[in-house]
Write a structure and sequence with these properties.
Heat Shock Protein 90; Ribosomal Protein S5, domain 2; binds adenosine-5'-diphosphate; binds magnesium ion
Amino acid sequence: MSKIKLLDPNTISKIAAGEVIERPSSIVKELIENSIDANANQITIEIQDSGISLIRVTDNGEGMSKDDLELAFERHSTSKLRTIEDLNSCFTMGFRGEALSSIASVSKTEVLSRTKEDLAGIKAILIDGEVVEFEPVGAPIGTTMIIKDLFYNLPVRKKFLKSKNVEENYIMNAITKLAIGNPDISFKYIKDNKVVFTTMGSGNVINTVFQLLGKNNAKGFKQISIETDSFKLQGFISDNTLYRSNRNHQYLYVNKRYVVDYRISKIVENQYSSLIPINRYPLFILFISIDPSQIDVNIHPTKQEIKFISDTLVYENLGKAIKKELSESFNIPKVDFSTHKKEKKDNIPLIWDIEASKDRDTLVAESEVSKETIVFKDFSNLDFSNASVKEDLGEETNYPDVEKTVKKFPSLRPVGIVFKTYILAEDSLNQS
Ligand SMILES: Nc1ncnc2c1ncn2[C@@H]1O[C@H](COP(=O)(O)OP(=O)(O)O)[C@@H](O)[C@H]1O
Ligand SMILES: [Mg+2]
């Protein structure tokens, strides 16, 4: 008897889902990308219980007809690609036709959809990848995908999920990347019935950054743009006062697709060496537009890795443009001297306190400092036995808690101050 058997479609989908649907955030990403591909300009994302009990993505895009909806959950069904050559002109987020079948195989899925040509919408319910309900319903134009009980049939996968907070962070990051990359789409994110953020969809990247990352991040960006025969780059890089201890806010989009390219990160970071502290990373939001035939996006199922066919061209131009922008807009941070206050301890006289308490007549007037090369004040008849030297450590200096009053001068005897800065002292032990 032969031992090789063809797997049934449901098992194939579950295995394939392992590649695309690792955690709730993967579903959020795939569903938003489908809404973007359907030309929606309003996308609402709702989650309950870090996406385990509910993920709902509603869009006002093109929707699906009854026939399309029947096919949408089949493996390898897509409206975005017909032949492999189409990849050379593909500008959509999806093209593998895998997401919906994978999602439906690991959850209880419900979809409502309506196109503008149809008078009524369609509702479909799938359990374990099988359609259990399919009927016409009243629905607005667009699509609503409802994912419930994620991984109910894959308990091992569920066990490997991280804490609620960590999974929510993954979701937030996934939405943030897509929202910054699509500033012309209005995103609304609702978590456990509370609105987390809304973006305006005004098309302005910095407005979107403001809404997602806050004012301080939004105001530290400089605009850069590059135009060559083979690609265009537009975007924003942080100035030398805005940096992070990680690479979390480095956003790179190629043909609007969020991608990770460590060489690009390195090239950007290299331009900041000596401008920002070590082990700190600049922020950037870069949009590269390039002929799709000049990149390979089909390296990984999540499509986050890409390869440029002629990468040196992109890398060299990027490095040069950033260097130029940074050298033109280098920002010298202002130091607020008011935070470096000298501290006073009541009972120990400081050298400058003693100086201040001296008869004003014996002090040298400010104007004379510039006239004379050396201003010498004679302290030889003052008693410094209790004086101490104090370090000027302002309260806001981040040093470890050092003993601020350093030490007394056991053998040195101050005799005066030169240039109002240097203390002149003689070694009393060596006095003959
Ligand atoms: N929100 C949506 N609006 C309109 N059509 C959609 C939506 N989501 C999915 N579809 C349709 O279902 C098909 C299958 O989706 P998916 O499995 O994600 O594959 P892909 O996005 O790679 O084509 C898409 O090609 C598209 O035609
Ligand atoms: Mg898709």
